[in-house]
Structures are given as structure tokens and as C-alpha cells.
Amino acid sequence: MCNISSLIFGASNLTRQEIEKKRVIEIGALDVNGSLRTFIESRNPFEYIGVDIEAGPGVDVICYAEELVNKFGKESFDIVISTELLEHIREWREAVSNIKNICKSKGIIIITTRSFGFKYHGYPYDFWRYEIGDISNIFSDFVIEELEQDKLSPGIFLKARRPVTFIEKDLSGYELYSIITNKRIKEINNNQFESFKRKYKHYLRQQKIRNIIKRYILSL
Q1: How far apart are the first and last CA of the chain?
Q2: How far is residue 52's CA from residue 92's CA, in Å, rounded to a whole number?
């Protein structure tokens, strides 16, 4: 998935020299509302693999982000792209670890994700919100080349490079803001998740009813 701001950031921060003859993977590659794939393939990469949890446009391999190392091996790609994905992964630490570890030494990662204030957008679920400080901390074991806020809506964009000497940061105790609990927490437990799903299901049902009523009134 992508949006116009993410597309602009990716296209502005990846040069032809960085892409040409390189192995590229996009995680969360299902093309729902845009993708960097066309731009990157025009720069002649050696390979471009789109990964997602379901088949569809832009998806070459079905694989969870938490299983990337098992699927492809460590240090397999020169460029690792993840646009508008991290907020949707409940076990975000595992996803981040896999993103870091499939990236080659001196390789590049491009991350875009959402921040506090962005509405719930389940696909199929929505768990987390990342701020500048979070991304700076989480990826402090990489060399951060670009880190900025989305100017159009609450979100964060990152370009970072894996150092030759890479020692993965321990994130086991890190707390992240969860849209499920409306506070910073380490983990989302099953009771919290199930409670939220019930509440959100009720919200969706009420919203559907309101939309039906609105359409009926407009038709009068």
C-alpha cells in the first residue's frame, strides 16, 4: 500500500545508482492505492520482489513480515521498502527485526508509516502509531539519512542505511502508542484486542446505519 506522499518520498530519496542492478523487496506490496514499483523498475533493478500476506496486484510472494528472514535469508536485499505497513502489524518488533536483517550491509531501507492523529484504518487491523522519536530510536542501529514527517497527514518517512558493523538494537522493552488502548504499551494482549474488535464492530455497524439514513434523506 502507498499514498502520494509516500510515493514522492521514495522517488525523491532513491537514486538510479542506488537502484540499478540491485535486489529490491517491497513488504506490504499489494497495490491498493499506489506503489513505488513502477518507479523503481524503470531504474533497472536486478530484481524486484513484492511481498504481502495475500495475493493481488504487485504481489509476487505471499509471506508475513515476521517470516522474511526464514523465507529469503539474512542480508538478501540491497533495498527494503515498507510503505504504510508497520502500523498494521501487531508483532511490530519481529517485523522490524526481519526488515533490518534481510537488508545487506550498506543497503537501504525505506519506511513510511502513520503517526498519532491518523484515523483507524484496519487492513485488516490497525494497531500502532509511530512518531519521529520512535522511528529515530527503533532504527538507531542504522545510519539515518532522511527522517521527516508527512506534510499532508500524520505520518513518518525514513530512509536509513545498514552500517557495515551492525549490532541490532534490543527493543524488547520499548513502548509504542497503540490505537487499540490509546496509550503507550509494550504488547497488545488478547483481551485488549478482542475488546477493541467488539467496540469497533459496533462502531462500523452504527456508521453503516448512519450512512443509510443519510442517503435516504438526500434522496427525498
Answers
A1: 38
A2: 15
pLDDT of 156 strictly over 70: yes
Residues 40-46, mean pLDDT to the nearest whole number = 96
pTM: 0.88
Rg, Å, the chain Cα set: 18
Whether 203 shows a pLDDT value over 90: the answer reads no
Please give the pLDDT value at position 144. 98
Residue 210, helix vs strand vs coil: helix
Q: What is the DSSP string of 27-79?
A: ES---SS--SHHHHHTT--SEEEEEESS-STT-SEE--GGGHHHHH-TT-EEE
Cis upstream peptide for 154 (omega within 30°): no
The kind and range of the H/E element at 198 are helix 190-219
Q: How confident is the model at residue 214 (pLDDT cuts 50, 70, 90)?
A: very low
Q: How large is the average pLDDT for residues 170-182?
A: 95
167-171: Cβ within 8 A, 24+ apart: 167/141, 168/97, 168/100, 168/101, 168/141, 169/138, 169/140, 169/141, 171/93, 171/96, 171/97, 171/138
- All residues at 6 or more sequence positions from 161 whose CB lies less than 8 Å from its CB, including other chains: 106, 107, 108, 109, 142, 143, 145
Cβ pair 11, 35 in contact under 8 A? no
Q: Left (φ > 0), alpha (ψ -120 to 50) or beta: where does 182 sit? A: left
Q: Give dist(CA 171, CA 186) in Å, integer.
A: 10
